[in-house]
Amino acid sequence: MTDSKMEKVNMLYETVAQSVSQGNFPHGVLVECENEQDGVDFAHYIANCLVCRGETKPCLKCADCLKAEKGGHPDIFETDGVKGKSKNFTVDAVREIRSNAFIVPNESDKKIYILKNGQNMNEQAQNALLKILEEPPTYVFFIIVTTSRSTMLETVLSRVQTYSILSDEVKISEKEENAVNSFVDALLSVDELKLMEATAVFQKNNQFAKSVIMLLSEVFRDALVKKSGYTREMLFPEQVNALCMALTSKSLLQLVSVCDKLIEAVDRNCNNNLLLVRMCYEFKEAIGR
Ligand SMILES: [Zn+2]
Q1: pTM of the predicted model, to two decimals?
Q2: CA of 67 to the centre of ligand 1 (A)
Q3: Can you list the domains of the chain with their CATH numbers?
């Protein structure tokens, strides 16, 4: 691990301990990692914090901490959801977890499910998981570990808080930052002219458009997460706030899917003028104007 990554990860560990101590840890968490073992280690740490009965979490002294550390805590479950030869996290595994989750904890006042192999959870399995993520029993916590966030359904992502332990820091140029700002402004002011102006900077440059659309998509996702009552580290906190207040979840979801479609269009090497026209039109549609 590089120094900056180490620092970032240490900060995440602290954030978790704090949020558990304050009693506002989310019931659904996604741990995004490059190396599954890093993600699983982090998930174990979260689980340990959650079951700890000490004052500072994890105290590493209470009976729950000791059991969690040895990997033998009866209320911490860990599975990769694999049945048989396929590497998939199966829908049957999710169903089993779902019915198990309604049985009250053994020793702790919480029950934690560490779901590894999230990148191999197909749509059917994710939809099954969504049902319980939407209304989990108060004592249940899910930690999904994945090496690829992009394989998760939007509906699932909007229900979980993401902790990312990827090494690549996102570097945003000033030009990109300005483009994102004016775009969000235009969307919020519902001014068609402003929207056209904001898109104009992408003229003759599909790749620049793509990088900004990717950032916008992240901003819309963050706003969705915020709407569901969670907070996470955000690249554009002000813009996210404003969008979260002004738009419905439905509009935000639609904006995310518009971004996906536009990115696909760029990847198919679409005509730049058409892309810009489409951007204006689809974004306007998404916010219902
Ligand atoms: Zn403890």
Answers
A1: 0.61
A2: 10
A3: 3-165 (3.40.50.300), 174-286 (1.20.272)
